[in-house]
């Protein structure tokens, strides 16, 4: 397909559209990840951090952060001519978690973005997707200056099931983020196939 038109002699392709969530703790890089890979101008619902929010928004480790997502981030990426992903970045703070159920409706899977300096911040997201049987991949955002740990150590620290993929990534890099999203789609497909097999046996 070229500029929305099909090439001569080829039948039009109706792409499959899939919904992927990008979750994780406050300041972990969710907005950056969606923006790095989106082929459209991402929709952002960011507001400036205020003094009133200082007691509830823990900025230790992300002192340079001045804004926060209050509803969601939204972006889109075409992985293939017949496969389009819609990305929904969730808000990171506890007071906005009531939005998660709505955002999670119809999601194929999720990325839980993790920062090894604040690994405990992604526990809630891991627990959320495990409880709702939504397949997810943990993406370890490799911040400059942060210590690097073996994937098995991260898996153990998060107490993940053996089948949950853990990948290293750079949330600023388009190709790196694409690899994470491909891992989510592949994991979700394998998860669905295994679930179907369990149901039929």
Task: Describe the protein's architecture and organization.
- By secondary structure, the protein is of the alpha/beta class.
- Helix content is 28%, strand content 26%.
- It contains five helices and seven strands, in the order E-H-E-E-E-H-E-H-E-H-E-H.
- The protein has helices spanning 30-37, 100-104, 123-131, 151-158, 174-200; strands at 16-24, 43-48, 67-80, 83-89, 109-114, 136-141, 166-169.
- It has a seven-stranded mixed beta sheet, sandwiched between helices.
- Strand 3 (67-80) and strand 4 (83-89) form a beta hairpin.
- Helix 1 (30-37) crosses helix 5.
- The longest helix has 27 residues, at 174-200.
- Mean pLDDT is 84; it is low at 1-5 and 49-54.
Short summary of the structure?
With 201 residues, the protein is an alpha/beta fold. It has helices at residues 30-37, 100-104, 123-131, 151-158, 174-200; strands at residues 16-24, 43-48, 67-80, 83-89, 109-114, 136-141, 166-169. The protein has 5 helices and 7 strands.
Key phrases:
5 helices; disordered N terminus; 7-stranded mixed β-sheet; globular
Strand order of the largest sheet: 2-3-4-1-5-6-7
Taking all residues together, what is the mean pLDDT?
84
Total beta-strand segments: 7
Strand residue percentage: 25-35%
Q: What is the number of helical segments per DSSP (H or I, 4+ residues)?
A: 5
What's the structural blueprint in terms of helices and strands?
Layout: E1 16-24, H1 30-37, E2 43-48, E3 67-80, E4 83-89, H2 100-104, E5 109-114, H3 123-131, E6 136-141, H4 151-158, E7 166-169, H5 174-200
Parallel strand pairs: 1-4, 1-5, 5-6, 6-7
Antiparallel strand pairs: 2-3, 3-4
């Amino acid at each position: 397909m070229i500029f929305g038109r099909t090439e001569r002699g080829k039948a039009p392709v109706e792409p499959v559209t899939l919904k992927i969530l990008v979750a994780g703790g406050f300041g972990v890089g969710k907005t950056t990840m969606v923006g790095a890979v989106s082929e459209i101008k991402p929709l952002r619902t960011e507001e400036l951090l205020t003094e009133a929010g200082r007691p509830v928004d823990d900025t230790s480790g992300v002192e340079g952060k001045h804004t926060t997502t209050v509803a969601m981030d939204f972006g889109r990426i075409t992985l293939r001519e017949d496969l389009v992903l819609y990305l929904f970045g969730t808000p990171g703070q506890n007071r906005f978690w009531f939005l998660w159920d709505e955002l999670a409706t119809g999601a194929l899977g999720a990325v839980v973005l993790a920062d090894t300096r604040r690994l405990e911040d992604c526990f809630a997201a891991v627990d959320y997707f495990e409880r709702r049987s939504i397949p997810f991949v943990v993406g370890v955002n490799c911040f400059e200056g942060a210590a690097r740990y073996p994937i098995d150590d991260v898996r153990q620290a998060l107490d993940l099931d053996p089948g949950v993929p853990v990948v290293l990534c750079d949330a600023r890099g388009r190709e790196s983020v694409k690899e994470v999203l491909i891992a989510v789609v592949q994991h979700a497909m394998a998860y669905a196939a295994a679930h179907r097999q369990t149901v039929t046996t």
